[in-house]
Write a structure and sequence with these properties.
The chain is of the alpha/beta class and about 500 residues long. The chain has helices spanning about 15-25, 25-30, 35-45, 70-80, 95-105, 115-125, 135-140, 175-185, 190-200, 220-230, 230-235, 240-250, 255-270, 285-290, 300-310, 340-350, 355-365, 375-380, 380-390, 395-400, 415, 440-455, 465-495, and strands spanning about 60-65, 85-90, 110, 145, 150, 165-175, 210-215, 280, 295-300, 315-320, 325-330.
Length: about 500
């Protein structure tokens, strides 16, 4: 039996898929070379169970979410359990979603904004206060930190009053260890010492000119530039909480001093002249370039790093000690929601540990469900085995080959649940993370000006084939995960 508070009853997941997964571990390597054909098979299977049917608005739950953030199987299981139909709309930027909710007053019941946008919506009075009597899974399973649930912000979200974080991640540096060592001539120890000594400064190392990539996001890049420019001041603060507060200040400050410091750093990082790094720019295509060994290092989100490391065993992820961006995407219920009760049911459902694990396997970002609940008791044997073999055993460059006892790593080992690439709250300098703040249009304009001056109108580096490749690859893995998870869920239903 699986422990669950989804609909007030325990749910059983059968064990048949586990045997298949154990016997076919090679499948996950073959995915790398047979992705297109598997995508066609998976899509034909999954879309047979696409969300459909007619229903009145009272029986419809409208969700506004990032693309690919929810496993199809977990959503369909929710529909079947509650007799509701879920309509999912997607968005590309927080600002576009804000326009839909606030200016167009579209009646979405559940929205999944980033933390800074959730704070804006809460401060402006656009969110429904959450009823935790209807969210027992959140209360029981969310990660606790210093006596508070993850996502607790005293100034706008005390005890997650308006928003509950669901996915979490960091912005750090991904690097190709093999290519980096070949270029610099470093041993493993020398490489480690260099990273710790220089922090974000390794992106500015002139020996890597033309071999790095920067995210094509002026806000994200500005924060990194600020952490680099103020590195010495940050490392001089011994207390991690105080350092995190100062890092957050620099990350978001548009004071003349900070703008000037970041401008100087940007001029060396972003330009194409002889004295700058001549980087590539991209949002997703730089990730593909790393997988393909075309560049050595990039500024990267942790979830995309996991996706890339799954495909290339030479890739590794690093969080500089002076600070890095920690972010959360959060479930909220907008004031315009027409089905608040169903919205609570949906949020509660997604905090079932087995649903959280299924979603991880869809988008490679960890959820805020505490990993101590990733056991057979809470996941069921099939999803437990799926998570073990598809994720942990397929990415040794994150989790390693074996545990301290020399055995294959399991979900119960600290090599899994204490890994900061996957679980940011386990990072040794977690308290020093910087949080992105909501900017006014005037602040955005100041930062964008600094970005544009440094880039000098250079090319973005986007490539059509890169975009097609990444879209197909991501969709294929997502659909394969959804197909197998859906089989597990349906077997569970049939067994009941």
């Amino acid at each position: 039996m699986i422990k669950s508070n989804g609909g007030g009853s325990s749910q059983t997941i059968t064990q048949s898929l586990s045997t298949t997964l154990v016997a076919n571990k090679g499948l996950f390597t073959k995915i790398k070379v047979t992705l297109l054909s598997l995508a066609l098979v998976a899509s034909s299977f999954v879309f047979t169970f696409s969300l459909s049917g007619c229903a009145s608005r009272d029986n419809i739950l409208r969700v506004l979410n990032w693309t690919g953030y929810l496993c199809i199987a977990t959503v369909q299981a929710f529909e079947e359990n509650y007799g509701l139909r879920v309509e999912i709309s997607t968005f590309e930027t927080n600002e576009a979603a804000y326009n839909l909710l606030v200016h167009q007053r579209t009646d979405f019941d559940v929205f999944v904004p980033s933390d800074y946008m959730a704070s804006r919506l809460a401060r402006e009075g656009h969110l429904v206060e959450l009823n935790y009597d209807l969210l027992p899974n959140v209360t029981n399973y969310i990660i606790q930190h210093n006596g508070n649930p993850l996502g607790h912000f005293e100034d706008w979200n005390p005890q997650n009053r308006f928003a509950v974080p669901y996915t979490q991640g960091t912005t750090g540096i991904m690097f190709n260890r093999r290519l980096l060592q070949e270029r610099l001539g470093y041993t493993d120890l020398q490489l480690q010492e260099w990273k710790e000594r220089e922090g974000w400064g390794i992106l500015w190392d002139s020996r890597l000119r033309g071999q790095i990539a920067v995210k094509d996001s002026f806000r994200l890049a500005f924060g990194v530039g600020a952490l680099y420019a103020n590195r010495d001041a940050l490392l001089a603060i011994p207390d991690q909480i105080e350092r995190g507060a100062k890092a957050t200040y620099f990350y978001n400050s548009t004071s003349p001093e900070n703008l000037q410091a970041v401008q100087a750093a940007f001029n060396r990082l972003l330009g194409s002249g002889a004295d700058s790094q001549n980087p590539r720019f991209g949002v997703d295509t730089d990730t593909h370039a790393m997988v393909a060994n075309e560049i050595i290092m990039n500024m990267e989100w942790s979830g995309q790093a996991v996706f890339a490391m799954f495909q290339n065993p030479d890739l590794y992820y690093f969080l500089p000690p002076e600070g890095a961006n920690f972010w959360m995407d959060m479930f909220v219920i907008p004031q315009n929601a027409r089905n608040v009760d169903a919205a609570h049911k949906f949020i509660n459902w997604m905090f079932n540990p087995w649903a959280a694990a299924s979603n991880i396997l869809t988008h490679f970002y960890t959820t805020t469900v505490d990993p101590k609940f990733y056991t057979v008791e809470y996941l069921g044997q099939e999803i437990y085995d799926y998570l073990t073999y598809f994720l942990v055993h397929s990415i040794p460059n994150i989790f390693g080959e074996t545990n301290a006892a020399g055995q294959p790593i399991s979900l119960a080992d600290p090599e899994f649940y204490s890994n900061y690439v996957f679980f940011p709250h386990r990072a040794p300098h977690y308290e020093a993370f910087a949080i992105l703040a909501d900017f006014t249009p005037a602040q955005d304009a100041l930062v964008l000006h600094v970005w544009n001056v440094a880039r000098g109108g250079g090319e973005s580096g986007l490539n059509t084939m890169d975009i097609v490749w990444l879209a197909v690859t991501t969709s294929a893995i997502t659909l394969i995960a959804a197909a197998l998870i859906l089989l597990a869920i349906r077997r569970r239903r049939n067994a009941n």
